[in-house]
Amino acid sequence: MYRVCRGGGTVAVEDLYAHENRERAERCNRIEQLRDTSHTRALALSELIAMLGRAGLEVESIHSERLITAMEPWIASAQATPERAAEVRKLLDEDMEADRSGMQPFRHDDSIHFIQRIAAIVCRKV
Fold first, then answer.
1. Which domains does the chain have, with CATH numbers?
2. Which of 23, 57, 65, 96 gives a 20 to 30 Å CA spacing to 45?
C-alpha cells in the first residue's frame, strides 16, 4: 500500500487485532486458526501501529471497536470441519470459566457469544 500511495496520500487499514498479552493472543489466534485455516495471526494493536510506522506511514487516527459475535454463525462462515468446529467450541467453552483468549465468551439466549476486537487505522504517507 505504501508503494502505490502518493506522497501525502492516505492509507487505511481495518483488521482484527489480538490482545497485547502474548499468551492470550496465542490462544485467540489458535482458536481463529482452527476455525479458519487461512488465518495466519492477528497482531496486537501495538504491533499493527509499529508495522505501519516501519513502512513509512504516519498514524493519523485509530478507531477501535469490540464486536459481539455469535459463535455458531462465525464457525459456519469459515466452513470449519466438524472436528475443528468441535475444538473451537471446546476452547471457547473453557474460556467462559477462565478467559485465556481475551475473547470474553459468554452465554446469551442459549448460545455462546464472544468479543472480537477490530481497529481501523488511518495513516498518511510521509
1. 10-125 (3.40.50.150)
2. 96
